[in-house]
Amino acid sequence: MSFKWKATSDEIARVISKKNIGGIFSKSITISPNQKAAIIKNGVVEESVSSGKLRVGGLLKGEINKDVDIALMDISPKDLQWASSEMWTSDNQKISCKGLLRFKIHDEQKFFQMLFAYTTPGNNGERKLSVQDIYNRLESETITRVLQPEIRNIGIENIYGNREMQLRLENELEMQLKSTFAMWGLELIRYSVEWDLGTYEQVMQASNELHTNEELKELETLSKEGDIERQSREQIAQTRANFAPESVIRDHERNEGIKQVKHSAAISQIESESDALEAKQAIDTFRAWKETKKDLKRADLEIEEDMEDRRHYRDKDYLNNIMDKGGADTAKIIAQGREFGSMSAEQIEALAKIQEAEANKNDDRIKFMMDVEDRERADAYRHKELDAAMMGAAQNNVSPGARKCPNCGSVIAAEANFCGQCGSKMK
């Protein structure tokens, strides 16, 4: 009797015991396409078959009650839909990602080790490994361990629309998946990732809609304002058209007034400049006249000084000749006569009075000096009389080694030849 494994789409491997295979004389397993069977004895693969039938025992073969297990494997590619639904960014935004993993069995020995390590035998001693079992292991050991720590350190704005950041995360996850699959004896054939940024996309969409609505409202408001401004310009243009003649007249009158004021200002400026020029010319003429008058006066003074110098030198020469011939008194008399000759009667009278006053003053000074001399002479006589009296009184008290000066009466030493007071010689 032959055993055929009817694997489900989720089942990838099964380990059954030889005793669970029907048949007494012959126990065999029929291998379907994309399946592989291996005989495992004491944990070691003894024989493997990828097509046909595999004899595992029976009476005809003489293998009874042998401790043998048969591992059945589905070597066709398997698709696994994976997802990581709760991941939090650094700014506490919830995101998720999902994708497709396609893989197949590549290394039987490593796969058997993973099969026996991650499965437990059932009541009948069978072990089963499904795609879901692989996913559970993969999620806890690889997907969660790679994505969640990385996402936690990144802000939502650095992920949204940042394809470079997404590719970096995807490449890191792909490398970790390949490493894990290789360790389990599996080969990663295809790998895809689809990001879901959760409510952030809804918020961005709502924000974009809000901005769009605000811009539309702003455009509508600008359109209304444009209509109102256009109507205002039309009204202003109409008003200007209605008042155009009056405006032209007023502008003409205002321009004429401005021209008149400018004309008057120009005339005033010309007159002011003319007056200023005349005043400047008058000042220059006055200055020239003053300079001319000053020059003439200077010339007259120079002529007078020259005449005075000539007359002075002439008179000096004349007086020198007279002094040489007649003496100083004659020259003085002649000089005075010349001086009096050039004076008026009043000047001569005044000069006479001055000379008289000077003569009187000299007489008074001489008289005063004579009185002073008389008083000094009387005082001297009196002092001499007093000195003589004192000398007479002192003669009685003169010591034998002293004597008196006969001229002034001073007491001097007896052996002195001259008086120490008056300098007279002692006889």
TrEMBL record:
InterPro entries xrefs: Band_7 (IPR001107), Band_7/SPFH_dom_sf (IPR036013), Zinc_ribbon_dom (IPR026870)
Annotated ranges, domain Band: 30-194
Residue intervals of the Zinc-ribbon domain: 404-425
Pfam families named among the record's database cross-references: Band_7 (PF01145), Zn_Ribbon_1 (PF13240)
Protein name: Zinc-ribbon domain-containing protein
